Write a sequence for this structure.
């Protein structure tokens, strides 16, 4: 055993119900080192951290294979308490602070300093007196270490996000004997100067001998601060690099790089000299967790526009905003008509259909039948599938059934009958019902978000082929938003990559992996000098 | 057998079994079963429409209408107005149900707006709104200047707590095409009226707006994404529910033969909610069939258990106590089934 490393994870393999999410992954970190863990969404970073922290989700699903060495000894970490006792801490992406408590109380939460009093001697240690003065001094020390000269007794509620992040860090370093700190995308919510500050603090902590594992998507931060880099892709270790010996371009390539089949994508000529069918102008959407911070985008008739990017950076907000499901600012032009405040009903009436990323909550009524789910939007918006009796209307059961059965046949929805409840269908078939609903509405623009999320490979292919066919046969204009870059590249004509609520760039499907990787990691292609053989810069 | 129980739902199976056992026991004890069944059928018709009032509100997502007492109070107001105008017979009945309509629309809209303002706590809000309206109208029955001698206290101000409809519009529906078969009386008019109202409510659930309200109740976000105005749907549903409550009490009163004012409507929502839940509805799903099954089982067990219990324990006021125990027992049981009952 080489004692040089503080933490060594060897041959870690983990599968959930036969689906392997980590395959023989190694990770080794020395004291005082800043080590970056890179990978796309779903590459296995979170699972690896769950293994390290002995989280329940790992143990309740059959544990993992492989060994963990910490401080030179083989360890069996079966809960986060074990991890804490070893001196492993984590700074979370979402803040785990109690807003109504003061900074000190938050830092010392569950580790309050106490002393005996009369009552506690009688009734046990739970009733000991809390030593506020001493706690305050400890909190001060921890805050000083992260260069925060804020009063330690201020309530957390209302503090800027940047401060909260530092309080989280202060809490971790206040723990005695902390040797190893994990930062899970700490800069995602910070402004640039806050992020710079954070990186400086991380360096300071590392210099004091603490090993740091830094999980982030921002490539330039990685290059700036880290000593070593580990890249995961699809649960496998693809590279271990010294930062000084690599470039952001190489890392980006490693993160994305897989063989892409651009299969069956017949080249279609899109007339981009005509007026765009839909044009976004400085369009902003206030969708929690997917905020769009001002984008310009043109959509031409008959094209498939892909919108890609990492989760939580705004790509999903665009479609939701156009449909008027979240508050928007800025405007868009739909077939020459200026729209500043989209109203869902009007957008549907103007021939835009929407397949939501949230299938169960927004896309379907799981308690209702396939029939109702299929025709409802068309019924409500276009007044179709109704029988008119002058003073009132009733559902036209016969036509509803005919339409549903046609959709079931066309989209190959596996079900017992058109009256079956949608909730009892499999994920892939539910997705097809969502699309059936959108198609029944007879739209000419269709916004599809995450159409392949949570469905099996066979169903994925059917859904993608269907979108392709709609575009080819009916000249339907499609915006497809997806986290699966591969899928976007297999069907889209152009792909806009969204980071930080803005468009980082627009690429063609055949552009290099490195270009996609760089844009997704928040680097512009220009900075790098060598990026982007073909890309349309947007205005 | 097990599959059968699963299909109709365990609560329904239990209640049906109980009803059969009670009727058989009654037959063995030598009770006049024909009379018991006559009573049962009449009460189904009497209570049915008030139970039906639960359907629109549940479908719209505002839960069982515990505030159906609002509609009941409006129905009583319409009925007393009809009497005060010296109307009798079918004219009085028709006048009352027509007058209840505009009242229900106005009050129902206000009530719907109240519910929209406090989403998530509809059931609690409804219960207390219902209570408040009843108490408010306790003042109303005293201060509204009615002049009819039938309704007023002989001395002092205000209306009597209970007065008979004898000679006014007592049993105008019940006696329409009334006939007897095998010792069982069939109030044809009452059942027909209930049937027609059921059909109208069913048709509404099949209409465009009814469908939108239903899907909105099942999945709010879905309906919004399909361009449905959820709040408007909830208001319409509660207007209908309120009107059904008003209609319900007018039908109930003509069949009962008396009008009961003041605190009489206070607890009337609970048996209605219980009946629809026993019938298979949940706090978020209800169909007209649930109402019919529920009202038969609930009123069936209630009406038939009384004479049987009296026969088994013939002392003092046990019947009244037993009635309270059985009724509240069923309500309690039904409320435990509010989220599924399978």
């Amino acid at each position: 055993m080489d004692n040089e490393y503080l933490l060594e994870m060897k041959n870690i393999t983990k599968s959930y119900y036969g689906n392997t999410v980590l395959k023989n992954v190694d990770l080794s970190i020395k004291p005082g080192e800043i080590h970056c863990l890179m990978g796309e969404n779903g590459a296995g970073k979170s699972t690896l951290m769950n293994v390290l922290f002995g989280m329940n989700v790992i143990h309740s699903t059959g544990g993992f294979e492989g060994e963990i060495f910490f401080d030179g000894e083989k360890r069996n970490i079966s809960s986060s308490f074990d991890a804490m006792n070893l001196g492993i801490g984590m700074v979370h992406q979402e803040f785990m602070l109690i807003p109504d408590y003061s900074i000190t109380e938050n830092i010392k939460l569950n580790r309050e300093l106490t002393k005996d009093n009369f009552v506690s001697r009688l009734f046990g240690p739970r009733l000991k007196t809390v030593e506020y003065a001493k706690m305050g001094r400890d909190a001060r020390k921890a805050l000083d270490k992260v260069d925060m000269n804020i009063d330690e007794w201020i309530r957390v509620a209302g503090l800027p996000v940047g401060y909260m992040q530092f309080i989280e860090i202060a809490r971790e370093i206040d723990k005695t004997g902390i040797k190893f700190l994990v930062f899970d995308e700490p800069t995602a919510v910070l402004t640039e100067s806050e992020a710079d500050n954070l990186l400086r603090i991380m360096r300071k902590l590392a210099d004091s001998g603490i090993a740091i594992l830094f999980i982030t998507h921002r490539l330039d931060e990685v290059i700036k601060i880290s000593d070593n880099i580990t890249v995961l892709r699809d649960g496998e270790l693809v590279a271990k690099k010294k930062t000084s010996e690599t470039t952001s371009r190489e890392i980006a390539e490693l993160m994305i790089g897989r063989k892409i089949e651009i299969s069956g994508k017949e080249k279609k000529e899109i007339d981009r000299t005509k007026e765009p069918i839909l044009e976004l102008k400085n369009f902003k959407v206030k969708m929690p967790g997917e905020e769009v911070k001002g984008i310009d985008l043109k959509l031409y008739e008959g094209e498939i526009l892909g919108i890609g990017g990492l989760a939580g950076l705004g790509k999903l907000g665009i479609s939701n905003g156009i449909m008027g499901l979240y508050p928007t600012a800025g405007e868009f032009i739909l077939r020459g008509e200026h729209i500043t405040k989209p109203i869902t009903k009007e957008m549907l009436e103007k021939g835009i259909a929407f397949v939501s990323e949230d299938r169960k909550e927004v896309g379907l009524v799981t308690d209702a039948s396939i029939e109702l789910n299929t025709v409802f939007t068309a019924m409500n918006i276009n007044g179709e599938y109704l029988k008119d009796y002058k003073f009132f209307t009733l559902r036209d059961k016969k036509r509803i059934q005919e339409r549903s059965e046609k959709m079931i046949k066309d989209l190959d929805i596996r079900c017992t009958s058109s009256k079956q409840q949608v909730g009892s269908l499999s994920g892939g078939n539910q997705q097809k019902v969502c699309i059936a609903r959108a198609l029944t509405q007879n739209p000419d623009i269709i916004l599809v978000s995450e159409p392949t999320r949570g469905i099996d490979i066979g169903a994925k292919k059917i859904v993608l082929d269907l979108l392709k066919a709609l575009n080819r046969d009916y000249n339907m204009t499609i915006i497809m938003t997806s986290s699966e870059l591969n899928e976007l590249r297999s069907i889209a004509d152009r792909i806009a990559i969204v980071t930080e609520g803005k468009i980082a760039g627009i690429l063609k499907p055949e552009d290099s992996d490195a270009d996609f990787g760089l844009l997704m990691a928040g680097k512009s292609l220009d900075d790098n000098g060598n990026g982007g053989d073909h890309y349309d810069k947007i205005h | 057998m097990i599959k059968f129980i699963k299909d109709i739902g365990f609560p329904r199976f239990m209640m049906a079994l109980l009803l059969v056992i009670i009727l058989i026991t009654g037959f063995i004890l030598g009770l006049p079963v024909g009379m018991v069944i006559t009573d049962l059928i009449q009460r189904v018709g009497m209570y049915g429409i008030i139970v039906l009032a639960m359907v629109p509100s549940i479908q719209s997502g505002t839960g069982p209408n515990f505030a159906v007492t609002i509609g009941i109070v409006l129905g009583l107001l319409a009925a007393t107005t009809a009497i005060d105008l010296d109307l009798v017979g079918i004219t009085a009945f028709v006048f009352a149900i027509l007058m209840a309509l505009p009242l229900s629309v106005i009050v129902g809209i206000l009530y719907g707006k109240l519910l929209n303002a406090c989403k998530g706590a509809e059931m609690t809000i409804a219960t207390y709104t219902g209570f408040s309206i009843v108490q408010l109208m306790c003042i109303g029955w005293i201060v509204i200047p009615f002049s009819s001698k039938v309704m007023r206290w002989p001395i002092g101000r205000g209306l009597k707590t209970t007065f008979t409809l004898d000679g006014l519009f007592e049993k105008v529906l019940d006696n329409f095409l009334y006939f007897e078969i095998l010792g069982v009386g069939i109030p044809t008019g009452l059942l027909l009226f209930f049937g027609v109202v059921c059909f109208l409510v069913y048709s509404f659930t099949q209409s465009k707006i009814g469908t939108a309200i239903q899907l909105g109740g099942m999945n709010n976000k879905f309906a919004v994404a399909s361009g449905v105005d959820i709040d408007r749907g909830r208001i319409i549903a509660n207007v209908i529910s309120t009107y059904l409550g008003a209609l319900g009490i007018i039908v109930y009163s003509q069949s009962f033969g008396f009008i009961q004012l003041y605190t009489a409507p206070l607890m009337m929502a609970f048996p209605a909610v219980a009946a629809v839940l026993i019938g298979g509805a949940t706090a978020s799903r209800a169909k007209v069939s649930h109402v019919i099954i529920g009202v038969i089982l609930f009123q069936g067990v209630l009406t038939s258990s009384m004479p049987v219990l009296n026969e088994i324990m013939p002392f003092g006021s046990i019947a009244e106590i037993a009635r309270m125990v059985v009724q509240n027992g069923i309500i309690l049981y039904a409320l435990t089934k509010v989220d599924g009952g399978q």
Observations:
- Residues 287 and 326 of chain A are 6 Å apart (CA to CA).
- Residues 527-539 of chain A have pLDDT under 50 and may be disordered.
